[in-house]
Design a protein that fits this description.
The complex is a heterodimer.
Chain A: H1 2-7, H2 20-25, H3 30-60, E1 65-66, E2 70-71, H4 74-93, H5 95-109, H6 118-137, H7 168-197, H8 210-241, E3 252-253, E4 256-257, H9 265-299, H10 306-319, H11 335-347, H12 349-363, H13 372-388, H14 391-394, H15 397-403, H16 408-437, H17 443-469, H18 489-519, E5 577-579
Antiparallel strand pairs in A: 1-2, 3-4
Helix pairs in contact in A: 3-4, 3-5, 3-6, 3-18, 4-5, 5-7, 5-8, 6-7, 7-8, 8-9, 8-10, 9-12, 9-13, 9-16, 10-12, 13-16, 13-17, 16-17, 17-18
Chain B: E1 2-4, H1 41-74, E2 77-80, E3 85-88, H2 98-130, H3 145-169, H4 178-209, H5 214-244
Antiparallel strand pairs in B: 2-3
Classes of the chains: A mainly alpha, B mainly alpha.
Amino acid sequence: MATHEFAAQESHAHAGPQGFIRKWVFSLDHKVIGLQYYFLALAAVFVGMFLSLLMRIHLVAPTAILPFLGDIKPETYLTLVTMHGTIMVFFVLTTAPQGGFGNYFLPIQIGAPDMAFPVLNMLSFWTTFLGFIVMLAAFFVAGGAPLHGWTGYAPLSALQSAGPGEGLGADLWIISIAIFCIGALMGALNFITTTLDMRAKGMTMMRMPLTVWAWFVTAILGLLAFGVLLSAGILLLMDRNLGTSFFVPLVTINGQLTGHKGGSPLLWQHLFWFFGHPEVYIAILPAMGMCSQLLSVFSRKPIFGYKAMVYAILAIGLLGFMVWGHHMFMSGMSPYTAFAFSIMTMGIGVPSAIKTFNWLGTLMRGRIRFTSPMLFAIGFVSLFVSGGISGPFLAQPVLDIQLHDTYFVPGHFHLIMGVASIFGIFAATYYWFPKMFGRMMNESMARWHFWFSFIGTYAIFMPMHYLGMAGMPRRYSQMTEVSYLHGLIPLQKFITYAAFVTIAGQLIFLVNLFWSMFKGKKADDNPWEATTLEWTTATPPPHDNFGGHTPVVHNGPYEYSVPGAPRDYVMQNDPEIKPAH
Amino acid sequence: MASFSTTATVDDPRISLGDDGILPPVRGGGDDGSGPGMPDYATRLRRARLGLLVALTPILMLFVSFSSAYVVRQGLPTLDPRTNALVRDWIPVTLPKLLLINTGVLILSSVFMELARRQIRGQASLASAKSAPGVSVVEQIRIPWLSMTFVLGLVFLFGQWAAWRQLAANGFYVATTPSSSFVYLLTGTHAIHLMGGILALFAAGIASLLRRSVATRSIVVDVTAWYWHFMAGLWIYILCLLEFAS
C-alpha cells in the first residue's frame, strides 16, 4: 500500500502546531477546519430540527401549552418557520457538505497538502460561526426573531414596524446572512484556487473524483450567487434603517404612511431568487458527488459514464442560474417570461436524468456491498428521484399557481433539497468517519439509523404532497378550525408523529457518532478498498496529508474490477492501467 | 478494456503548509522559495494572481447586482397619494465636480501603483541575479511609489467624503430620492473596497519593515496592484453609470 511506501520518508513530514488553540481552535489545517464546519452544522441541524418539532406540534395542537415555552402564538409559528428554514439552508445544507467534507477531503483527494490560502480558510469558518451566533442572537433581542420567512420577502422584511420580530431581530437576521455570504465567498475562493492550482502531478481534471468536481462547481455557484445575495441584503438594510425605497412601495401600516414610496418588492424577489435557486444546487451538488463516489466504491464498478457525469454537473450549475423566475410564477409575470423560465426549468431535468440513469447503470450488475454509507447513497438516489419528479409539475406556471402556496411545495423541496442532501451528509459521514477519526462507526446502529431516517422521511414528506393537492395552504399557523380542511387533520397528525419518530432516530446517529470516536473498532487506512487519494495516506491523515510527499496520479478515480489487476481496485497512485488492444 | 502493469512512482517531497494565508503555502514562510519542499516564486505568484482573479468575481457580481437594481428602480413609477396618479420619484442628482478630481487622483494612484509593481518586480529579479557568484549590482535610488499610492488612496477617500458633504449641502441625502440613494450606495461600497486595497498597501509596507523577502513583498504588491487597477476601472464604470444613466 502506498502508505507504507511513504512511511520510509516520514522525516520529511511537516509537523503541525501543538498548542490547543493553534491546533484545534484557530487552526490553519483544512482538516481541522472541515471538522469545525461539520460540528457547527451538527449543532445547527439540531436547533433547526427542534424548531420544526415545535411547528409540527403547533399545527396539530395550536392551543397546547408547552413546558418552558408556553403557548405558541401565530406570529411565533412564523418565526419558527423563518428560523428553521434559514438555519437549515445556510448553516446546515450549505455548511456541512461543502465547508465540512469539502474542506477536509478536497485537498487530500487532489493530492495537495492544504488549501491554497490557509488563513483565509480559517477566517471563512470563523466568519460563518459568527454569522450563526448573530442568527441565534435574533431569538433573544426585543421582539424576538423575524417572521418574514427564509426568503425574506419585502415589504414585510423591509419595514421595522411590519410585525413582531421585524425590528432588531430582522436586522440581525440580515446581518447574519451578510456575514455568512462573506464567509462562503472566502471558502469558495479557496476551493476554486486549490482545485485549479494545487492538483498533484497526474491529477488531470478528468481524473478528479466526482466529489471534487461537485465541490468545485458548487464553489463557482457560490462565487456567483452569494455576491448577489449580499447586495440584496445591503439594499434591504438600507431600506430598513436609512429610509431608502429600493424594495418598499407606497404602503401604510395601521393607516399611516410609512414614508417609503416607489420601491419594488419584486426587485427583492429577483435578486433573492437569482441567489436562491443556485443555492438549491449548492446544497445538493456535493451530495450528488458523494453519491456518485459511494455507488462506484460499493458496487465495485467504475462509475457509469464519468464524462457524462462531469458534463451533467456543469450543465446543472449553468442552468441553475437561468431558472430563478420559476419561484415567481405567482408574481404576475408575463406568460411569455414564465414560459421561458418553465422551459429552462424542465431542461434541468435532462442532466438530472443523466445522473440518475448513470447511478442506476453503476448499480446494475455490480457486486454491491450494502454497507451503511451505501444504504444512504441509495437512499439519496431514491429521495432525489421522488423529490425531483414533482419538479416538472411545479415548473409549469399553470400548475404552480394552483400548488405554489400549498403543502405540495414543502413536500417537494424537503425531499429533493433538504433530506436528499442530508442523506448525502450521512453517507459521507459513515464513509469518511474511519479516515477522519481512525475508527469505524457501529454498523448496527448505522442501519437502524438508516431505516428510521428513510421510512421516516417518506412518512413525513410524501403526505405533504397529498395535503397540497387537497388544497391545504402552507405557512398558516392554525388550520384545525377551518372546516374544509377538517378531513386532512389526521394526515397532519400522522406527519407530526412521523416527525417525532424520525427525529428520535437521529439520536441513534448522534450516539453512534460520539461513541465511535472513542470506542469504535480501529480502522485500517483503506477499510472500504477504495481508490481515491485519501485512502492512500495514514489514518487520520498527517498534518500535511501525505507525510511530506506529493502523490503521483496515474489512474482515474473509479478503477474497480480491472481485468488483470492483482485486486479488484486500482488506486489512483498505483501503476498506470494501460488499455488492452 | 484495460490491463495492469507494475512499477509504482512516488515523487520527491515538494510542498508544505503555508504561514500567512494571504500568500500561497510556503514551508517556513517568507523566504524566496529556493529551499527544498517549497513552491517557487512563479508558482506562488501564479497562485496569488489566480486567487485574486477569483476574489474579484463576487465583487463584480455585487456591482452587477447593484447596477441591475439601479436600472430597474429608475424605471419604476410610484403612486402620488395626493393626485392618485402614477409619477416618477427618480430625481437626477447633479454630481459634484469634485468627483472628477477624485477620479484623476485615483487614476494617478493607479499609475503609481503600476510603477511600484514594476519597481519591486525589478528588485525581485535583481535579488536572484545578486545571488549568482561574481555578480555585483549597483543599487539605484528608489522612488517610493508605493507610499505615494497609499497617500493618493487616502486623498481619494477624503475626496469622496468631501463629495458626500457637497451632496448633502445641496439637499441630496441617502433617502432623498432613489438616485441619491444609489449615489451613496455605489460610492460607499466602492470606497469600502478601496479601503481593502489601502490595507493591502499597508500590509506591504509592514512586510517591508519586517524585512520579509523581496519575493514575498513582490507578490503582495503584484496582487494589490491588480486589485487597485480593478478598483480604478470599477470607479470609472460607476461614475459613468451615475453620470450618463441618470
